[in-house]
Amino acid sequence: MDGTGATGGPPRIRSGALLDVGPLPGRPGIRASGEINVSTRLSWENALTELSRRHTDVSYVELSGVRFVDVAGVTALAVTAMNLPVGRVVVERPPPQLPRVLDLFWPSLHRIEVAPR
Amino acid sequence: MSTATTDATFTHPALFYRSEAEYTDRTVAFVREGLAAGEPVAVAVPGPNLELVRAGLGTDARDVTFLDMTEAGRNPGRIIPGVLRAFADGHARAGVRVRIIGEPVWAGRSAAEYPACAQHEALINAAFAGRAATILCPYDEARLAADVLADALITHPTVVTAGGERVSEEYDWRAVVARYNEPLGRAPDADVLVFGPGELPEARRFAVERAASLGLTGRRLQDAELAVAELTTNSVVHGGGSGTVAVWSEAGQVVCEVRDAGRLTDPLAGRRPAEHGQIGGRGLLLVHYVADLVRIHTADEGTAVRFYLGL
User: Fold this and answer.
1) What b/e readout covers A47-68, taking b as 16+ CB neighbours within 10 angstroms?
2) Is ipTM > 0.90 here?
């Protein structure tokens, strides 16, 4: 469950923690800052959908301004990368949860390359 | 060759042993029987027993997967997804049974760990129903308490003793799941924070600050942050929208607990391995993967999930 209530479930959750996400200037991909959690998941997933729509060979996801990403946020990125027909996603300077969750659930996901902080 | 499909019944005998020699004889015979039938075989038992099986098998050991259960199965809640299903699913082919020795209960399991061990043994029956697998669970009759051995008769449909294999008349795994669904008391010195739907980052920060002040560092502290985030998110999404998070230390471990008004109705929640492309449902699984122990109490009044991380 991602908490966005596709089946008429829980109401939209509001939180003080915000996510600012948009296109990456000068390179294919997106940049984000803030928190990726249940409150901000919709805008994160929308940005990933846009990334995969525009993807050709290598897309970049610049996360130096992201303080925290939860398991569902990492899952959305992993599933996006797995569904790309070609190429790969380079995740730049993610918070420590991202490599940890990737390692636990997708230890050999070759479509994602992590460039650490 | 017959074209008959593999018997998809799950068999789950307990093995009651009294000596190293008996342990070695029984487990080695069990492994060899599997190897002779062409079955993939794994042995997940505590280190010293691992060596007994390995030595007893001699060169046959090279065809067997060995795991030290005190590491892979330190948290009993991780054993089904991370050890048993991981091996079984990794060898799932039409017509192939898998064979595993799993020893999750040993002398020295703490009072906090044991209820989770017993529930784990019970839930194996649900997790493997209809799967072509044999899981043998050794119990040290000489060193384990009488009530532990009595529970093994309730969680295993058959039992192997020196006298041979027999059906367990006591078998009723649901009773053990229910019995160890025990109310959990908090330490009197626990720090507690109430959180609402807009306060997930605050709940997380609170837990991280308290866990750090109790001595948790590095990756374990990061794991605590992730696990608290998943549990508090579950409270907000499934557990009535709010809850409390509490942190304290106990016997060399940091304990983080999240309570909310929800009720867990799926006894296997957090114990099914995630499908590769599965979107949701990984939160409790993550908690089981990173923690040394997870205890859960769920009732109409609400649910408490606590996890332990060693300092």
Assistant:
1) bbeebeeebeeebbbbbeebeb
2) yes
